[in-house]
Amino acid sequence: MKEDVDQRILGAVSVINAPDAVKAQAEANGVAAIDLLLQDYNRGDAPGLVIGIARHGKLLCSRALGMASLEQGVANTLHSRMRIASTSKHFTALAIMLLAEDGRLSIDDAIQRYLPELPQLAASGPTLRQLLNHTSGWRGHDELSSLAHGLTLQPAEQAMTSMARQSELNFEPGSQMIYSNGGYHMLAKIVERVSGKSFAQFLTQRILEPLGMLDTESVASDLEIHPGLAGLYWKSSPDGGWRRGIYPVDLEGGGSLISTVGDMLRWLVHLRDPNKRVGSAASWAQMLAPTTLSSGCVLPYGFGLMRHLYRGVEVIHHAGGVIGGASQMLTVPAHGLDIIIIANGAMVSPQALAYQVVDALLADELPEPPEERVPIKAYPALPGHRYHAPATGEMIGFTDVGGKLGLSWLNSRPVGLRQRNGSIWLPTSDLAISPLEIDVSEINPELVPDTIALSEGGQVRQFRRLPDTAPSVTALASQLCGDYWAPDLGATANIALQGDRLALTMQGKHGSNLLYLQALSEDVMSMASPDPLMSALGAGGILNVERMTGLVVGLRLDSIRLRKLHLIRTKVVA
Length: 574
Description:
The protein is an alpha+beta fold.
């Protein structure tokens, strides 16, 4: 199976033949449409965003909206520095490639060669290459931390400590993709150990200064203070007040860069330029190449960059998100269109906004219409039903997402499905994991199927429909309540009955985390956080019950970025 990567991408180049005056008017109309999209964020009582748009190096639109500091009443400007979050990742990837050019490392080396404190959890690898394209299978420190400690601030050294504690991988290296901030944190540590410099120093000296990106630097913690840095803010509810956004773990490598509109537009020009000043042509070719899983499934993710077709033209991009901030960097190389959007709390999706910008500016030059998600009326029998794969413990659920058929993976927030060639699917660009695809050619849309075959990254799993009626909380409480130990978290866990709900409390060294459980069958439960911020960040997942001679001896926890994390019953109750 191929995802949305194919040979058409090499030929997806449009030639612009319109007279200059016509093009100028089209650009002016596009910018006017963009300003209408932005008008709601131009306010003095809320955080906002900065946006820069250029075409062939000519600035078309630059706006600074909303407040950089709500406390001091300081507005955002085009010189405001903001956290670009995971858009940082391809800078980290380039740092690794520069060291490879220097002959200091090979990206096909096992990670333990540079990080010997990590255990050997696979027969071969994971390799640096697999960290770069998120196919290593190593569990990330931020997911481990939030599960064990909630949003409690963690010491910087805790990141590597938690990842070195792991006894299992999410999957065999190279077989699947799960987006991992932890993998990029490892890469930053490798840069430091190989170069003998701090990660921030290496980036500044080898990448940022040579390109004149003087307002950009790596800032590992939201607790640090830097000149011109806008605050990060989030809202607990539409009617709630603003709160500071502080990411609880070390961001180095995975999301640590702060930058400005001007610096990022300068970077995008360099990214599109075939004559690179930083990094060889061979290095950049590897960074932009798609990833092939062991199944043969091809993904549009390279090394910290996504590359695929959008409405028939090639786009290269990467988004980012932290607590109180989000970003999207996108270029359409064939049209020389560069877009950077960085928000410090505005209630906006920079990813969606960037594509709206593409639509507005290239309205008459895109060869394909916008893609429609699957309407709910196409499969009216599916919403409200969940399916479980006994072989893997994974779960999917179908729901209505604004009139579209949505898929929830492992109890995560549902996403509207796409349709192609007799299947419904979610690509890597939607969930930042291996693509999920369901063959619907033999499904009667008017009937609820008992089983569904789903391909995850080219590997087919059989899912069975979970019962419509779940067991009672009381019946499950007598079986499940008690204490557990999670060795890979370094945390204890307790399940107790709280009123009419089962509650799972994790207790780590530095903090705790509460999750409420909902029984879906005798051996499958969903988890959800009562904390609105944790919920917004995707906290939750499912638990599979482990039994021996009918008694509960443990649990396996799965979430969108964690697989089969073991909770061992400390005292088996008959």
